[in-house]
Amino acid sequence: MRIVLITGISGSGKSVALNVLEDAGYYCVDNLPPALLPSLVETINGADSKCVAVAVDARSAESLAELPSTVRTLREHGHDVKVMYLTASTHSLVARFSETRRSHPLSHELRPGENPASRRTLIECISEERERLGSIEKLGHVIDTSEMSSNKLRAWVKELAEVEYAKLTLYFESFAFKRGVPLDADFVFDVRAVPNPYYDLTLRPLTGKDAPVIAFLDAQPQATEMLADIRAFVAKWLPSFKTDNRSYLTVAVGCTGGQHRSVYMAERLGAYFGDTERVVVRHREQH
User: Fold this and answer.
1) Which residues are annotated binding-site positions for GTP?
2) Is the whole model's pTM more than 0.85, yes or no?
C-alpha cells in the first residue's frame, strides 16, 4: 500500500496537501493519533483503496514518539511510506493566523496547573509545536512554505505523491536571495557572481528558461565554470547520500531575483542529471 504521512507546523499548509491527495484518490484521514496508524492501514488494506494519506499534528503529543518506529514497521511489512513535513517561518505563520483569524490548535490546551486566563500566546504555541515535532522532522521530505502560494504547494505535493519511493529523488530548486534561502535545502549555491541578464533590457522580462537568456549565459565563462563546479560537487557526493538511504536531496541555486541565473542553472543541472537520476526541477519565484 502507498501511504503518505503529512505532518508539520500548524498553518504551514497541511490541509492544502491533504486535499490534493484526496482529489487524487487517496483515502484521507486528518489528525489521526500515530498509535492508530497500523490499525487504519490494516483496515484500508482489505478494502479497494491502495493509497492512504494521513495528517498527524502536535495535538497527538502522547504518541508522536512512536511515529518513527511505526513508519519503520510499516516499511518492513512492504508498504511504501512517504513522510512530508511542512514548515514555515514564525513570521509567516503569525501573518497567516492573523489573516484567517483562526486560533492555534495548542492555544486550547492547558498545561498542568495553568490558569485558563493566562493561555499561551500564538508565538509560544508555535515554539512549543516546533519542539514537539522536532523528533519527526527528519523522517521525510521537508517543505518550506514560507514564501509559497497554495497553488505551488499543491503542485509540489502532487509531484511528491507521484514519484516512486525506492530511489533517491534529486531536486534542483531556483530561488531569490532577497526572499530568503529555502528551509528545505540540503545544499545552497550562490550564483550572483555570474553576469546578470537583468541589466539587458531585452532580457529583463524573460527567464532562465528562455532561449535568449540561455544564449547570453552560455556565452559567459563565469556561468559555464560555475555550472561545471556545481555539477562536479553534486556528482561527487550524490553516491554518499544514496548510501545513507536518503529519499531526497535538495540542491538550491540562488541569485538576486530568482528569474534568470538561478533558473538557468537549475534547468541545466536538471537536464544533466536527468539522464541517470530521478530529477525534479522547481522554481520558487515563478508562479
Assistant:
1) 57-60
2) no
